[in-house]
Write a structure and sequence with these properties.
The protein is of the alpha+beta class. It is 28% helix and 13% strand. A two-stranded antiparallel sheet has the order 1-2. The protein starts with a helix and ends in a 22-residue tail after the last helix. 10% of the residues are buried.
Amino acid sequence: MSDAENGSLPLPVFKPDERVCANCKLFSPHSVEERRGWVGTCRLHSWRGMFPPSAPICDKFVPKGSAAPLPPTVSSRERSARSVAPVVVRRRVDPQEEVDLEGLSMTREELMEIFREASGMGESPPLANKWEGGTLRLVPGNPELQARDLPIDNLFHKVVMVRDRLRVLEQKLNAHPKLTDAEKVEMQSYITRVYGSLTSFNVLFKDKSDQFVGAKGDE
């Protein structure tokens, strides 16, 4: 939607001390939706997708108007200095080349995929639209204690990290050279039960293919 089209609905304005995403430098207004009004994106957390400017802040909040850190400057003398470091010539690596890790055989691409999933660098699944910008409230049983609010985006990110690490564990288990088939089946059954315990979080995923799948009867 163009700026002219967006002009029919003014961008919400919040007080400077309000702890919302609209007061963060990283929030970028995008367009107006018929149901939710203004929505935007986070320039740091692209996995959050579109969410309203009234969404609660995260731990990377940068208030508008605050000074941004300046990049380190390099003197002309440092720029003109000649490097004495050895020149490293990198050979082209075939992603399908087999690598052997103490008897564990896999291609380089398969190994890199494990690294990407373990480090959280893989493509994150989308959050279901109805939870975007939502808040999870933890209310103690003791009414004298204060409740705590947690952005659903943060919870969803942690759930996805748990899911990805379980998948890496499955890959390592199935390719382990010293485990018998019976031992692999037994350990896989434990992982499947863990998936079954996590199916309660399936409501957070937008796509069914990204959800947890446990043993039959655990879903």
